[in-house]
Amino acid sequence: MKTPAKVNLAVPPEVKPLLRDFVDRLIATIEADAARRLRSAVALALGTPTAGAAAPRRKATLVARPVRRRARVSRQLAKARKLQGQYLGALRGLKPADHARVKALAHAKGLNAAIRLAHSIKS
Predict the structure, then answer these.
(1) 3-state secondary structure the chain
(2) Are 90 and 118 in contact (CB under 8 A)?
(3) pTM of the predicted model as reported, rounded to 2 decimal places
(4) Which of 95, 103, 106, 121 has the fewest CB atoms below 10 angstroms from its CB?
(5) What tens digit of pLDDT does each residue of 12-25 get?
(6) What's the CA gap between 61 and 58, in Å, rounded?
């Protein structure tokens, strides 16, 4: 491998050996990592396992997680959610002034009347 070009910096003489040692260790670490990755990639391409190849990771816990059950929805709640969805859908695409009119009617007379008004405005 080609050695890096030397750079003239104002480095105190007592720091130079430490710096040189650090750079040498860094280069060795990078080269070792590159070699390990290359071996692993070649082994994977050839379909042969290697000692350095990482095994598929598994969860550390052996305890199964409890299954979350969906909460039961009453007919009344389902009906209310459906009505709310129809109301929000009817409001989509209305101009701000019309939106305010429909919203005021919803507060005064309920969602069914507001939905009818919104649909009549749209058509």
Answers:
(1) CCCCCCCCCCCCCCCHHHHHHHHHHHHHHHHHHHHHHHHHHHHHHHCCCCCCCCCCCCCCCCCCCCCCCCCCCCHHHHHHHHHHHHHHHHHCCCCHHHHHHHHHHHHHHCHHHHHHHHHHHHC
(2) yes
(3) 0.45
(4) 95
(5) 888 888 888 899 99
(6) 9
